[in-house]
Design a protein that fits this description.
Rossmann fold, alpha/beta, 9 helices, about 260 residues, two-stranded parallel sheet
Length: about 260
Amino acid sequence: MIGADNESAAIKVSALFLRTTAPLVVTDPATAETIKYAANAFLATKVSFVNAIAALCEAVGADVRQVVIGMGLDHRIGPDFLQPGPGWGGSCFPKDTKALVRIAEDSSYDFSLLKGVIAVNEEQYERVVAKAVRLAGRSLQGATVALWGLTFKARTDDLRSSPSLEVASRLVQRGAKVQAYDPTVIGPLEGLDICDDPYAACQGASVLVIGTEWDELRWLDFGKVGDLMANKAIVDARNLLQPATLRQAGFVYEGIGVL
């Protein structure tokens, strides 16, 4: 996506990408900037939408995993970015959605739809925290919470605007001691006890929160996890684990919109 007012400059920049297979679009700067912001805002909208649908599923007794399969089969929608979770984050979605709202405000347009997308994302952090409070069976004041995953998504070490960190911050604000593990984070991180392995994070915990969808977390010894915890309860904010298996093992389990 190349935005340029000068045709000669646009041609020179375009030449740098002639060997790539990606489509090349040359337009004016304002349009190029808007395309970039609009694309990320639309993806953020999909995530907020599916998180809102997950909340509705919990209210009516539907399973969001089946709902998104059905939605994704419609080629007009597709399955991408329809995974419920603790909220969206990273280096682009937060700043680009806010930038687009600000651009709209400066142009005297009330982009209420996108403001709602941002509001739903803020609410999602609190929904995860509320689940942790409920499953802990007590006030979080003085309680220990285990948190698996800190990066904004798996297969990256990027902590920028991580929803898991936002959830952790809110848990700490409620008086919890948060023992966190992430395979890419050595620490320290302010307010968190960074552990060397996922089992150490569970020692004495009243509830375990899954904050990032690291695949290796699926295959841990949950018998050992349960023995280490003060209370066998899991908030799976990424719908990473198998609810039936964990419930059979004696855990109280809550995902996002799952039965």
